[in-house]
Design goal:
This protein is mostly helical. It has one domain (about 5-295): Mitochondrial carrier domain (Mitochondrial carrier fold), CATH 1.50.40.10. Helix content is about 75%, strand content about 0%. It has 14 helices and no strands. The longest helix is centred in the middle third of the chain and has 31 residues, at about 170-200. It is globular. The chain starts with a helix and ends with a helix. It is found in: Mitochondrion membrane.
Length: about 300
């Protein structure tokens, strides 16, 4: 069963084991992503958005530190963040499957499932995203210790002690809305890309036979959905690192207005890196996650 099939076939009731296997599979896939250039592309994206520096300069900043720089924040926070993204994505999607009535199907169901998956993901990963942002900020400020494993393990505790537990909710609402929008667009784009493929392959099938998408079809539609979706939610994505910086005292509306003042070039700073990162993210959760899930069948 793939995400595509889930969005187009008649819904069935998901059991507890289905939820565990589905969310567990996406959790494992999400944890692998940061170790396969996922964290590196995310670091590029966040630094481009935060500083506006040219990509070559940002890349040199990370690469000059060797493997620790390239993998900065990947362990533990990158893996934890990736795993939590996958876990909450799977739980949100399973919740959507459970509560949506059978008459909601096709693209409408895909959009609704995307909203559930994204909202759950946005709320669940907020603390890990905060820690990741602070590690990147420390690296950019020249803190050599920030690339160490020990720094990554202690950063969240230090932030809570200095700024209070309420810091964990900073940017949470924006993140939930942004990720719901992300996944709505991603599910919709993927369904749109898959429909003509399924229509073509359905010709000549006998009654009752299901269209089987090839691995290549699943792979490229996932990558495309992730890459294209960034151009819808980039303005909100730019807000998150700014909201979660140590010196962030401005509210969401003020920061958003400041982003629009800079015009489209400033607004879409980081879009290229984010497109690459989002393509990997969607590919791992929707394609690799399905591959892992198939191992349990």
């Amino acid at each position: 069963q793939t995400h595509t099939h889930t969005a187009t076939r008649r819904p069935t009731t998901m059991g507890v084991m289905d939820v565990i296997v589905s969310s567990g599979s996406t959790m494992m896939a999400g944890g692998l992503e940061p170790l396969c250039l996922g964290k590196f592309t995310e670091n590029l994206k966040m630094e481009k958005q935060r500083t506006g520096a040219p990509y070559p300069k940002i890349i040199r900043m990370f690469v000059s530190r060797g493997v620790p720089g390239i993998m900065a924040g990947a362990v533990p926070w990158g893996v934890l963040l990736g795993s939590s993204k996958g876990l909450f994505f799977g739980l949100g999607k399973a919740t959507g499957e459970a509560v949506l009535p059978p008459w909601i199907s096709g693209k409408k169901r895909a959009v609704a499932l995307g909203a559930f998956a994204g909202a759950f993901q946005g709320v669940g990963i907020a603390p890990f995203l905060l820690a990741s942002t602070r590690v990147n900020q420390a690296i950019a400020q020249g803190n050599q210790a920030a690339t160490s494993l020990g720094y990554s393990f202690t950063i969240l505790g230090d932030v809570i002690r200095k700024e209070g537990v309420q810091v964990l909710t900073r940017g949470m609402g924006t993140n939930a809305f942004k990720r719901a929008l992300d996944w709505v667009v991603r599910f919709y784009i993927r369904e749109t890309l898959v429909e003509p493929i399924k229509a073509r392959k359905s010709k000549g099938l006998k009654a009752g036979q299901k269209v089987q998408l090839s691995d290549w079809d699943k792979l490229w539609t996932s990558l495309a959905a992730g890459g294209i979706s960034v151009y819808v939610s980039t303005p909100l994505d730019r807000l998150l690192p700014l909201l979660q910086q140590r010196d962030s005292s401005k509210d969401t509306v003020t920061l958003l207005k400041e982003q629009f003042k800079g015009g489209l070039p400033k607004l879409y700073a980081g879009a290229v890196a984010r497109s690459a990162h989002a393509a990997l993210h969607v590919c791992f959760l929707m394609f690799v996650g399905d591959k892992i899930k198939a191992l349990f069948k």
